[in-house]
Amino acid sequence: MSKRLSRRAVLRGIGGGMMLPWLEAMAAGKPPGDGPPLRTGFFYLQNGIVPEFWFPQKTGADFELPPSLEPLAPVRGELIVFSGLDRVFGGGTDVHAQCASCWMTSAPPTEKPDGMFPIDTTVDQCIAAAQRKQSVLPSLEITCNTFKGNKESKYLRTISWFGPGSSVKAENDPLVVYRRLFGMDSGGPVERSILDIVRDDAQALRRQLSEPDRRKVDEYFESVRSIERRMTQLERRAREQKEIPMGEPAGMPAERSEYICMMGDLIALAFRLDLTRVVSMMFGPERWNAPQFYDGVFDKPEVHHTLTHAMDKDDDARRKVALIDRFRVAQYAYLVQKLRKIPEGEGTLLDHCVLTLGAGLGNGNLHNYDRLATVTAGRGIGPHAPDPIRTGRHVRCAQGTPLANLWLSLLARNGLNRDRFADSTALLDLS
Amino acid sequence: MTLLRQVHGKRLFRAGRIVLRGAALLAVPAFSLTAGPDFSGIEDIRPIARRYCLACHSSAARSGGIDLEELLLRDPRAAPEHWKTALDVLRAGEMPPPGAEQPEQRERTALIAGIDRWLRANRPGGRIPAYRVARRLTRGEYTHTIRDLLALPADPFILPEQFAKDKAYFQPASGIMARRVEVDHEQTSNNPPLTRYPGIATLPADSRAEHGFANRSDQVSLSPALLEKYFAVAKDLLFHADFPSGHPLFQVPGEGLPDIGSARRRIAAFLPKAFRRPVGKGEIERYLDLYRLSRREGNDFETAAKHMVLSVLSSPHFLMRVEKRLQSGVPDAYDLASRLSYFLWTSMPDEALFTAAREGNLHETEQLEEQARRMLRDPKVKSLAEHFGGPWMRLSQVAAVIPDLDLFPSYYEPAGPARRRTVGLHMMLEALLLFETLLVENRSILDFIDADFTYLNENLAKFYGLRHLYPAHPKNGGKFAGRRNWFRARLGDRRRGGILTLGSTLTLTSLPERTSPIARGAWIADVVFNRPPPPPPPGIPPLKETDRSGLRSLSLREQVSRHSQDPACISCHERIDPLGFALERYNAVGLWREYDSGAPIDASGKLRGGAAFNGPIGLKDALLERPELFARGFVEQLLMYALGRELTAFDNPTVSDILGEVRGGGYRLRDIVVALVKSPAFRQTHKVSKAF
Q1: What is the tens place of the pLDDT at every residue in B608-657?
Q2: What distance in Å separates the CA atoms of residue B368 and residue B362, rounded to the nearest whole number?
Q3: What distance in Å separates the CA atoms of residue B412 and residue A300, rounded to the nearest whole number?
Q4: What are the chain B neighbours of A95 within 8 Å (beta carbons)?
Q5: Residue-wise burial string across B497-523, b where 16 or more C-beta atoms lie within 10 A, e elsewhere
Q6: B residues 630-659 near A, CB within 8 Å?
Q7: Which of B109, B220, B459, B472 has its CA 20 to 30 A from that of A284?
Q8: Is the dihedral of CA B217, B222, B226, B231 positive or negative?
């Protein structure tokens, strides 16, 4: 208990104090070549985009920034804009439900491990599982969903999955995210003993069960193990970490742009302090027909999904959807810029990141899975990937190139060399 | 569709393997490798099916992706879900399609009976598909269980899905809902739920299934962040300043009594309740060890006792519902008690139920029925309305709809924070009160289609233009509040009454600026018939609904109709659109209208395979003409909720049997619940595997 109080006191006391960046605090005394870790981020655009305002005409380094991508102008040189990456719809489910839930899945569309859904451990969780001993949080999942009620099922609200049927619950409250990063006490002997008891309970229980019941108890068991690991990590960090350079969020920001930027601030901080190396964020749930206020864009709330249905025949609707695209890109650009300002190793934090921004629908009106909007930012340098990603270009992929090829490449940069991921056909050449 | 078939084939193959292994083990002769498929029931219907169905559903034509030739002649197991589809369209009279040669009623009945017979004889593993559990407690279950386990005066959280702030009005033992009930609603919001313990950690809402309820075991999962929240809630609650002081669990033992003895007695009494089953000595000692450890750390009795209870509330035996596996195929009596209590109360069993389990007679049908009827008279059965009734009608979605302020100003209440207080909140309570009335009074569920009453508060009466049905304010010292005083109104006008014409239904299916007949039709197909339309396939231009840019001259109905004629769309839209058009007489917030944008409204329609009708009253009549279609849909939904899983084709006989039980009494709600509880599906275990 006393430990907790002192930590909390620290939290409250700090406003904007500076903290040692990763390298100085951690790398001292480490062998050369073992530089900063690679951070991988996934940013999901719900309901697709307007292709004509998104994809550049020119390929290569000479590409122009179409209106929806204009907010990325200051970091143009840090990007690869992809066109022509596809997914394949596996019939039998709603299109919106599958495009979100299966965006990062490791299951090919012909397999259906989760009912009718081709859902299996997603790329972020594959990376997280391999790194879980190193960071406080194996991964951080955020959703910028502020809608009320419980309108849509989890398939429209979840992009990250531990495995079939096992969704990772994403957070939508910046305060909860903050506390998840900083607020947990590392646990006294009593807390530790409670975890011991309940872990043993789960272990004994699972032995008595067979599938699929056992899988449910496994979820519990793995969760306890994860909490224990986090406590251990926190104990270690508590000795190293002196200050937290951001105060607790006072609550939900009133404006949507500020709200999403605050999530960006938290992600930047988590990356910088190496509290997590894997982040996924949804800009909002798929479909969900309810108005949302986009501050600084429209003067009244708009229903994004309904607009996408009208965008191919109605110029006004198309323009509005494109403005929503641009609004979301601006939030992503904010984070990319922020990471570029943070020095790390011999370059910037952004150099040790790959942040993928992408949509699960090609055209929100047609509900197709072709030509998915996909942008990466960062050079992706890490212990397993000394060669930087060659950024500052527009890559037009051959027709039918699976998005999974990109995921396969990101796994490789994280030291996970697989032959195949979902329906991948080859590595996507990033360098 | 090809893809779809492959998938089905694959799943079936897997299921088949399990079945075979099960068959060998249990010596169930249902099917084995050498004998080939069983055709009992199917043989009888071949001539009729050949005459009326096979022209379109042959292996070559495969209309709608359904190959009856394969099922009838080669292997009925090839796609059992298609038998369910066949039963649905035969019962609804949708097939054979209009224009094709129609079978006589006698032949139609024979087809249904034949399929039913085959399904009964060919259940996977030879067992009635039953309960599926193994999952964590949902947020609702956790909240109510904590309340009952710790004997708290009220739920620690008021969940948005509960709507009603007051509960005193709900007295099911009386068998009658009062003419006036006093109830106010809680503000509904996503996050966080209101709590009686300020500052306490909260649990997020559980997502509903794509089709079904939040308690489906394949939908409810755990992750580290979520488990941490469950731990945090228990800790915050036990150590909260407002936690009842002098709680018998934690009260310091009297002078001279040994602490450890008190702690042991208390945990020995507490643990079986928390784990909802008897516990062994070893288990008690393990948790008592934690008390000892906490004491060694220098904590006082109360703190150490709370630590001990905290560990119990963190255990998978408390947080998860896992059943014992017994060879007999009958659940353990304590597990059966939990099935009952979580179905009817969304909470743990009470003392009487534990006693029945202990005495071992809960398996007897009479005892089971007696317990169910007793529980239906307990105020805790309000949970059935909140956690089944509300989600069934999709009530929480009303909160997600934000009608356009300029077009529908009366939806918003002028007082209070802008846009916060809406009529929508009253609408949700109106719907909940309807469900509760049917439950308390054991009324026929056909009242859901057409009731001659509703409950109105003053705000809603005014909004609907039914002010004359709301009594004048009683003079009682100025205390009367029109918003929290609900009166039962005899409607005498069939434009209101029943779920189709509820403000909540009509609003939650609308867009901010206008109605959506398709969404309304889909709601009816799902909620009333339990036959949700399949998701629209990708790549097809969706129905253009907006009335902008040049299409303004077309009425909404014309636009929708025009685009629904696409051959790929018509088979489903033919079924759902007319249902929605019948409700076009109500605007996007559920108010009656004669015109839409100045043009008269065409609210005529025809049930696919049924009668033509006009407007909401016509629709009600058409539905009441064939009550079994709705009753079946309702029983299926309730069965999904009770069993916590999706239904398969093999559940169809169970539903038929329940309907057979309640048909004579006119489909009364409590009778349906009791019949369901008595059904083998509720009382058996899913699959025999390793014994404990």
Answers
A1: 777 888 999 999 999 999 999 999 999 999 999 999 988 999 999 999 99
A2: 6
A3: 16
A4: 535-538
A5: bbbbbbbbbbbbbbbbbbbbbbbbbbb
A6: 646
A7: B220
A8: positive
Q: Show residues of chain B in contact with A224, CB under 8 Å.
A: 227
Rg over alpha carbons for chain A, rounded to the nearest Å, is 21
Q: Is B148 exposed, middle or buried (0-12, 13-18, 19+ CB in 10 A)?
A: middle
Across B452-460, average pLDDT: 96
A130 in contact with chain B, both atoms CB, cutoff 8 A: no
**Count of positions (residues) in chain B:** 692
Closest C-alpha among A273, A279, A266 to residue A237: A273
Query: Could you check whether the bond before residue A212 is cis, i.e. omega within 30 degrees of 0?
Result: yes
CA A345 to chain centre: 23
CB-nearest to A210 from B191, B208, B689 is B689
**Which run of H or of E encompasses B107?**
helix B105-121
Pick the residue of B315, B319, B387, B508 with the most A CBs within 10 A to test the interface with A by mutation: B315
Q: Do A169 and B511 touch (CB under 8 A)?
A: no
> pTM of the full predicted structure?
0.85
A251 contact B CB<8A: no
Please check whether residue B133 is in contact with residue B321, taking contact to mean a CB–CB distance below 8 angstroms.
yes
pLDDT in tens, B666-687: 999 999 999 999 999 999 875 5
Among the listed residues A152, A164, A104, the one whose alpha carbon sits nearest the alpha carbon of residue B11 = A164
Closest to B640 (Cα-Cα) out of B629, B652, B628: B652
| Closest to A353 measured CA to CA, from A262, A257, A258, A274 | A274
C-alpha R_g of chain B = 27
Strands B453-456 and B485-490, how do they pair?
antiparallel
List of residues 6+ apart from A409 with CB closer than 8 A: A427, A428, A429, A430
- B160 closest CA partner among A327, A354, A109, A150: A150
